[in-house]
Amino acid sequence: MAKKRIVVLYGGVADEHPISCISAASVLRAIDTDRYDVIPVGITRKGQWIVDGEDPKGWKLGDSNLPSVEITKRSRPVLLDPALGSDGFFAGEHDDLKNPANGYGTNFVSMSDIDPGKHNMVCTLGHVDAVFPVLHGPYGEDGTVQGLFEMMNVPYVGCGVLASSVCMDKHFTKILLRAAGIDVAPWVTFDARTFDADSQFGNSADSMLAQVREAGLHYPLFVKPSRAGSSFGVTKVEGSDASDEDAAKRLAAAVFEASHHDWKVLVEEGIDGREIECAVLRDVPSEATRTSLPGEVVLDSRSKGDDDAFYDFDSKYMDESASHVEVPANLPQDVLQRVRSVAGKAFDAVDGMGLSRVDTFVRPDGSVMVNEINTMPGFTSISMYPKAWEATGVEYSKLITMLIEGILR
């Protein structure tokens, strides 16, 4: 049987660029190369698509420097002709990467162009059967690249345009889930474009605090970009419900930090509950959504007495000793089943497909609240998504095969 040609896409212009690189490295090391002919395609931080860069399979967690897609001496630009669909993937010459005047700066060409000298050094990457976009964050997980492949009629792993865009925006995720009868944390949303950046939002601090109190939000507060991931720009704001002269300043500083990543900023009420995550899979459209055993990320710093610790970027990706994953989470069976039920319902409510990780809060009374939905969850060696399925009986390499085969049917 002829191998199917799969493009694994990684990197990107979002803050999550290095996490995408590490996730892709794990996927590339585990993918079944007896079944698939794999073409790694990296996207630089400037948005250039390349092949023949640094081998991503060597990237891993724990390195002092986070990986990045860089143009090397052997790199060639990847060029797309949307009109040719699955046959529209080409590679140019190395020098084209530095000469946008050739028309390659946009990565889009038309192979029907009659200019006799324009495409003489372009070669095809072959018929691409599917794309696995291991991209996190904006311009990768938000429906944009999914829309591109929809226009090219190229199968791709993961959620479609609607689910990807909705779940990338935490504000609209909450609105859609709440409309579906699924409990979410109380919040307010700010438009940071209306605040005075010169004062680092200090001139708007009192107004922000007034809106938070009018919404009835209780401390601690979590301030986060609406359309970012991997805990970039997230700040925990302590305080009290009584008058606090420093509360407005702390809130403004947190909103200013989040605004570096997105002009839309959420302020959420901290929930008294355990953060429980559930991996969701619907690899075949005609089959029902499946859910894994729910897991919990245990912050080892809390066991050492740091009760204020939360699962920030360093805990996720830089310090393997900061936390560990427990699957299944240490909860009663009926609560675990409730988490799975809510996770599946949330995934279906946003029209999810392929895979997602649904993050929930389990409150002391056993009720379940959805925090967010990650449509392309981390695939690193310590990520919850593969660990949860492994504990449920689906080995990592088989999981990748299921996701790819599901879209090739």
Automatic annotation (TrEMBL):
Binding-site positions, Mg(2+) 2: E372, N374
Cofactor note (record): Binds 2 magnesium or manganese ions per subunit.
Names of the cofactor(s): Mn(2+); Mg(2+)
Main localization (coarse): cytoplasm
Keywords linked to the UniProt accession: ATP-binding, Cell shape, Cell wall biogenesis/degradation, Cytoplasm, Ligase, Magnesium, Manganese, Metal-binding, Nucleotide-binding, Peptidoglycan synthesis
Pfam family membership, one: Dala_Dala_lig_C
Coiled coil: none
PROSITE patterns tied to this protein: ATP_GRASP, DALA_DALA_LIGASE_1, DALA_DALA_LIGASE_2
Binding site for ATP: 170, 222-224, 230-231, 268-275, 371-372
EC number: 6.3.2.4
GO biological process: cell wall organization; peptidoglycan biosynthetic process; regulation of cell shape
Keyword field contains Glycoprotein: no
Residue sites binding Mg(2+) 1 per the record: D359, E372
This protein's pathway: Cell wall biogenesis; peptidoglycan biosynthesis
Similarity section: Belongs to the D-alanine--D-alanine ligase family.
Protein name stated in the entry: D-alanine--D-alanine ligase
UniProt source species: Bifidobacterium fermentum
